[in-house]
Amino acid sequence: MATETENGLVRMGKGKPLAITVVGAGILGLWQALTLARAGHSVRLVEKSASPFTESASRYAGAMLAPGCESEHAPEIRTLGAQGLALWRATYPHLVNAGSLVVAAPRDAAEAARFARDTHPPETLDARGLAALEPDLGGRFARAFYFPDEAHMTTPDALTFLLDAVRMAGATVELGAAWTSPSTSDVVVDCRGMAAASALPMLRGVRGERLLIQSAEIRLTRPVRLLHPHHPLYVVPWDDGRYLVGATVIESEDTGAITVRSALELLGAAYALHPAFGEAEILETGAGIRPAFPDNLPHAEVREGGRRIFVNGAYRHGFLLAPVLAEAVACWLTNQTPHALLVPPEPMAHQPHSV
Ligand SMILES: Cc1cc2nc3c(=O)[nH]c(=O)nc-3n(C[C@H](O)[C@H](O)[C@H](O)COP(=O)(O)OP(=O)(O)OC[C@H]3O[C@@H](n4cnc5c(N)ncnc54)[C@H](O)[C@@H]3O)c2cc1C
Question: How confident is the model at residue 322 (pLDDT cuts 50, 70, 90)?
Fold first, then answer.
């Protein structure tokens, strides 16, 4: 099935698919499996949890696709994230394309100025403009930054959709199957998240805590971020009056339950956004560990002459960048195309990358 180039790298033969095992059904593994199956490869997706998503970082995500807002963490996110958004829009019909709003309390004006400098918001709204978009925030903030081209989704619905799409694309899905090397596949795409840390010494975990609450008192239609120098917050609307309230960013791999301090900070910030959140019911709490590399950007690292590709380090941007990483791997396997997020095997590491 596989052919080898003159420098010994695995690639797709003329019209011949590769046998690919994708390990891990988090957001990175799901997009890899879907993209590679749709590209004509024979794909097997292996997930160690019998019930999918229960052990993944992905199930805790806010699942915002926010390349503009998130460019405050790394400027590259703007361009790469725009590619991710386009791929989601072509794939997921339930994406909510309502943009994002960013507000700040008057005492945090300096933080708002810093955010605007770092992200260049496309639109700044006055109080009336904000009320027109989100009537329940009317009169609460003098101005807001608006990123109209951003999107969000309901996390469990999106993960379930992708798993179904992987099956429909012809891939085999094995749940409750912990993968161990070696493999008989031509290529293993390793998307184990933090479980791959022993093979990726630079990988670290960044803890993110979040809550799911429900309120009949307030209606928001798009994610709203409340800036704060120490406790920034976002609220992501799901259906049925549910809101995902997140998220802490703590340099820790502790997988324990949310702490009282973090719950107080997050709920206090939600209450500051709108006091009606004080009457909301707390439906669920949880903490996920974001896998991250030192540059806080994800990488697809090609090893063993292309027989093993580690896709990891998505940090705060796993949903946003998963489709971009999947395209990068698919193009690499077809004709060794370089990509900004792809680390080729050692002998080729000098080759230039392009976004
Ligand atoms: C609170 C929070 C909010 C976030 N919000 C956003 C957001 O708004 N937008 C965004 O883009 N990103 C967001 N993120 C980041 C995003 O969730 C992560 O980057 C992403 O989930 C990482 O996905 P992954 O597939 O690498 O890892 P995981 O989701 O952890 O998946 C790894 C999978 O591999 C499986 N596995 C491990 N070992 C094996 C084995 N041996 N065999 C088989 N399977 C195995 C695991 O069971 C797991 O299912 C957020 C993260 C957190 C924690």
Answer: very high
